[in-house]
Design goal:
Blueprint lengths: L7 H13 L2 E6 L5 H16 L4 E6 L17 E2 L4 H10 L2 E5 L11 H6 L3 E6 L10 E4 L6 H11 L8 H14 L10 H12 L4 H9 L4 H14 E4 L4 E6 L1 H6 L22 E7 L4 E7 L5 H9 L2 E2 L3 E6 L3 H14 E2 L2 E2 L7
Parallel strand pairs: 1-2, 1-4, 2-3, 4-5, 5-6, 8-9
Antiparallel strand pairs: 7-8, 9-10, 10-12, 11-12, 13-14
Helix pairs in contact: 2-5, 2-6, 5-6, 6-7, 6-8
The structure holds guanosine-5'-monophosphate and manganese (II) ion.
Manganese (II) ion binds next to loops.
Length: about 350
C-alpha cells in the first residue's frame, strides 16, 4: 500500500472528467524532458487502455532523440511543427491534462490556446507555486516526478490494472530521469515500492537506462571533453562552477537537441562544488541551467537573476542578451548569493 498523497476530492473530480470525457489532450512544458514525455505518454497509454480513443499528446517543441523509443512517441503532436492541428485538438478537447508545469508561461506559444480552451483543465505537477488556471490542481512539490504522480493518480482511481507495460515503461522513464537515475530527490521508500510494481508490469529497467543514457554520438562525448577541459570555470571561494557554450562552439561539435543534457551536473562531482551553472546560447536567447547539492536553493538564484525557477536542486531560466552579459549577471549574482553566503535575496532586490 502506498500513502494517499493526492487529496481525495481532487481524485474524484478528475476521475469524473476521465469517465465522462470523450476527447482528451495532454500538454506538457517547453523543451520536454524525460518526466514531461514520460508522464504525458504514461497517462496517454492509461486513457487508451481505459477505452478512450480520442487522446492526444501535444508538446510546444521537439524533444531529444533519446526519448524517441518510448511507446507512443510517434503520436506526439509538436505545436511548433503543426500549430493549427495542435490548437484545433486543444479547442476540441473535453479534458486537458497539464502535466509537469505550474504556470502557462512554461508552455510558451501553446499557452493562449490552452488558457482559452473550454475543456476542463487538470494540473498534475510537482513544481512550487502553481498558478490558478485549472479546475483541478494536483500540485505536490514533495513528489520526485510528475510521472510518479500519474502512477498514484491512476491507482487512486482504482485502475491499477489498466497500467500496461507501455504505460509502466513511460512512467518509469520519467521517475528515473527526474531523479538523475535515483541519485537525487530519491530517498522516499515509496519510490521503490512503485518501481517494484512497474517491474511486475514487465518493464526492463536496465534496458530503459541504456536507451536513455547510452545512445549518444561520438561528437557529444568530444564536446563534453572540450567543455570540461576548456570551458569550466571553478569558483572555489563560492563553492560554485560555471560552464558556457556558444552556438558556434556547439556547431563545431555537430550539436543536435539533447547533446548538452547532463553537462550541468558534471562540475558537481568536484569536492566542494555545491552549485553548478550551465549557460548556453540558443537561437534567440540564452538558456540557463542550474543545479545544486544540499541546501542551496538554486531556484531562488534562477528567479532572481534569470527570470526562471524550478526545484531547489534543479532549476532553469533564460536571459535575453549576449552570452558575455549573462556570465556577468551570473558572476554578480554569485558575489552576493552562493552556497557559502545564502543571504536573504530580498535584501538585494
Ligand atoms: P533544465 O536545466 O533541465 O532545463 O531544467 C531543470 C528544471 O528547471 C526543470 O525541470 C524546470 O523545473 C526548471 N526550469 C527550467 N527552465 C526554466 C525556466 O525558464 N523557467 C522556470 N520557471 N523554470 C525552469
Ligand atoms: Mn518533472
Amino acid at each position: 500500500m502506498i500513502t494517499k498523497i493526492i487529496h481525495e476530492e481532487k481524485i474524484q473530480k478528475a476521475k469524473k472528467y476521465v469517465e465522462k470525457g470523450e476527447s482528451f489532450v495532454i500538454v506538457t512544458h517547453v523543451t520536454p524532458d524525460g518526466d514531461a514525455i514520460g508522464s504525458a505518454l504514461g497517462l496517454y497509454h492509461f486513457l487508451t487502455a481505459y477505452g478512450k480513443d480520442n487522446v492526444a499528446v501535444v508538446v510546444p517543441n521537439d524533444f531529444p532523440q533519446f526519448y524517441k523509443w518510448m511507446p507512443g512517441h510517434k503520436e506526439i503532436v509538436i505545436h511548433e511543427k503543426y500549430p493549427d492541428f495542435a490548437e484545433q485538438l486543444i479547442r476540441d478537447a473535453d479534458v486537458i491534462f497539464c502535466l509537469d508545469f505550474n504556470e502557462p508561461k512554461r508552455i510558451e506559444r501553446l499557452a493562449p490556446a490552452v488558457v482559452a480552451a473550454e475543456g476542463r483543465r487538470v494540473m498534475i505537477d510537482h513544481h512550487l507555486n502553481p498558478a490558478d488556471f485549472c479546475r483541478v490542481t494536483m500540485s505536490y512539490p514533495e513528489m520526485s516526478s510528475t510521472s510518479e504522480m500519474v502512477f498514484r493518480f491512476i491507482c487512486r482511481m482504482g485502475m491499477f490494472d489498466l497500467i500496461n507495460k507501455d504505460c509502466a515503461a513511460c512512467i518509469y522513464t520519467g521517475m528515473m530521469t527526474d531523479t538523475g537515475s535515483f541519485t537525487y530527490n530519491s530517498n522516499k521508500p515509496e519510490i521503490y515500492t512503485i518501481i517494484s510494481e512497474l517491474i511486475k508490469k514487465g518493464i526492463d529497467k536496465d534496458l530503459i537506462y541504456r536507451k536513455v543514457n547510452q545512445v549518444y554520438s561520438e561528437s557529444r562525448l568530444r564536446m563534453m571533453g572540450y567543455v570540461l577541459y576548456e570551458k569550466m570555470k571553478v569558483y572555489p571561494e563560492q563553492n560554485a562552477a560555471l560552464i558556457t557554450l556558444s552556438l558556434e562552439e556547439m556547431n563545431r561539435f555537430h550539436y543536435v537537441t539533447g547533446d548538452t543534457e547532463g553537462f550541468v551536473n558534471l562540475p558537481l562531482s568536484i569536492e566542494n562544488v555545491a552549485f553548478s551553472v550551465f549557460i548556453r546560447e540558443d537561437k534567440d536567447y540564452v538558456k540557463i541551467s542550474l543545479r545544486s547539492v544540499g541546501d542551496f536553493p538554486c531556484n531562488q538564484f534562477a528567479s532572481r537573476y534569470f527570470n526562471g525557477g524550478g526545484h531547489k536542486n534543479a532549476s532553469g531560466g533564460e536571459f535575453h542578451g549576449s552570452l558575455a552579459d549573462a556570465v556577468a549577471v551570473f558572476e554578480e549574482g554569485l558575489r552576493v548569493f552562493n552556497p557559502n553566503k545564502t543571504e536573504d535575496l530580498n535584501k538585494h532586490a
